[in-house]
Each structure stands twice: as C-alpha cells, then as structure tokens.
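Researcher: We're teaching a course module on how sequence relates to structure. For the next exercise, students receive a sequence and then see the predicted structure as tokens, so they can try to spot secondary structure elements on their own. Here is the exercise chain.
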Amino acid sequence: MSDMRPEADFTGFLAQGKFMIQRSRTSGRHIFHPRVVEPGTGSTDLEWVEASGHGTVYSTTTLMQRPPTPNLNIALIDLAEGPRMLARVDGVPSEDVRIGMPVRARVIEENGQHLVVFVPESQQ
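Model: And here is the predicted structure for the students to work with:
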C-alpha cells in the first residue's frame, strides 16, 4: 500500500475485510485516523498492522430518528491498542449501549461502502 495516501490504504484494507491501523516503528505507538506522520513526533516511519478488534465504549449517544427508521448509535471506542475512534455499536438497541461496554470490531459493507462497526463482546 502507498505511504502517501493513508486514507485510501485504510479503505482498501476494509474492502479486503481487514481492520488495519498504523503503528510507528520507532515509538511503537498505534495511530488512528490514518496519517502520513505520527502526531506529536512528526515521525514518518508508520506501518500498517492488523488491529486486534477489541475495544471499550468510551462515550455514546443516540441519534433519534423518525419511525420507521431505527435510532442510530454513535460511539467513541477506545481500541485495545490505544487510539480512539468514532463508530457505531450494532447488535443491541442504541439505548442499550453503555460506557465501559467491551466491544469487538467487524468490517461490514453497507450501501456500497466498507466500514468498521462494533458489537458487544457478549455476542461473540
């Protein structure tokens, strides 16, 4: 994958069913959202590594929809590797997603796009 188009690389990995994040070879720090340089250091030695998929809900909110459209959950997920990402939690009603809930990533295709969603660990 290319070093200069990290967002395109990330999307390409998702299309292959892989949830990949970046890691600095020097510091060992994991990074998300895809970038060209490591925040804080400016290091350009980033490599792609497969994420474990484990995370914890850091924050959550429910976007109320007009019926029959189901409500939408929006959550910040702390990945086991350290970064935090915005995603949604599937598999439970939006109102049942709780801070501290252990979750696991899944790569899905929705409306022609590949994306990462999370499900409660208890559903694994």
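Model: If you want an answer key for the exercise: The longest strand covers residues 54-63. The first helix runs from residue 6 to 15.
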